[in-house]
Amino acid sequence: MEIIKTIAALQNRLQNQPETIGLVPTMGALHNGHLSLIKTALAQTGLVVCSIFVNPTQFTDASDLEKYPRPVEADIEKLAQAGCAVLFMPDVPEIYPQKEHWHLDIGEIEHRLEGKFRPGHYQGVMQVVYKLFMAVKPDFAYFGQKDFQQVKVIEQMVKLKNLPVKTVMCPIVRDADGLAMSSRNVHLSPEERKHALILSWALHQLKKSYVKEASEELRKEAIELINAEPNVQLEYLEIVNAADLDTDISNPQIGIIALVAAKVGQTRLIDNVILA
To answer: Which helix (H) or strand (E) segment is 226 a member of?
Structure first.
């Protein structure tokens, strides 16, 4: 696996590349969820590029940025074993050589759910993903379903910017106990991890019982389950359409998804399940 740290060197490596290129953008602290994206990319493309970059513009809390895990050597080993061809690992000045203004109007989807609790977050996400797309020029880009809203935001950016890349959303990977894999899980104490399981359990129960006509009643039951769990502070649990995450789920042509976010102790977790 080649490790490249500058955009110029990356573009030099990828120019005249005859095979299709798959990009897996990450912020490191890799787990089996990330590696499942690499596996899918390897199956669908000729050359896989993974990026590791902890992007400062998408953090709305400076302390959250500071404590984000960065096990670089372990990440490199995992990617090499997974068969990744190129690791792009730039520093902040390489991606942001000067102060710049970025804003792309993608409509209400930016301000719903995660956007409501983390204002400005998705502008930072789009800013860095756009830069990565420009540097790598991938044919396909792979993202995890756990960050469902992020995938929808990036799809909208690709459409508005008319970018020649196809986004691919891959299923959530869970630990044996049901907890969705996340780089933030390392911050959970053993006791907090037990409490965190209520998120996947509530979603599981919601999916098991789901009928559209009873959506609001089932949503309230799931909320009650989570609120009864000690040391878990629910931020939202919403049932929305899968197109723009609006609460209008009347269109039978559009899928329906339940998304949840909560703090377990000091660790913020998200999860979701496709209902229909």
So the answer is: helix 215-227
Cα 85 from chain centroid (whole Å): 22
Query: Which pTM was predicted?
Result: 0.97
The conformation of residue 14, written as its DSSP 8-state character, comes to H
pLDDT score, position 176: 97
Look at residue 178 and tell me if it is in a domain. Answer: no
pLDDT at residue 187 in the model = 95
CB 46 within 8 A of CB 21: yes
One domain, residues 158 and 56: yes
Which residue in this structure is represented by tokens 């756990």? 146
Choose the catalytic residue: 31, 34, 101, 204.
34
Three-state SS string over 51-118 comes to EECCCHHHCCCHHHHHCCCCCHHHHHHHHHHHCCCEEECCCHHHHCCCCCCCCCCCCHHHHCCHHHHC
DSSP annotation of 212: G
Q: What is the mean pLDDT of residues 139-164?
A: 98
Confidence of residue 91 (pLDDT cuts 50, 70, 90): very high
Q: What pLDDT is recorded for position 261?
A: 98
**CB of 129 closer than 8 Å to CB of 154:** yes
34 catalytic? Reply is yes
Tokens at 113, concatenated: 């759910």
Same domain, 127 and 200: no
Looking at 96-214, list the stretches that DSSP marks H as alpha helix, in order from N- to C-terminal side: 114-117, 121-136, 148-161, 190-209
Structure tokens at 219: 């949503």
Residue-number span of the structural domain to which 266 is assigned: 183-271
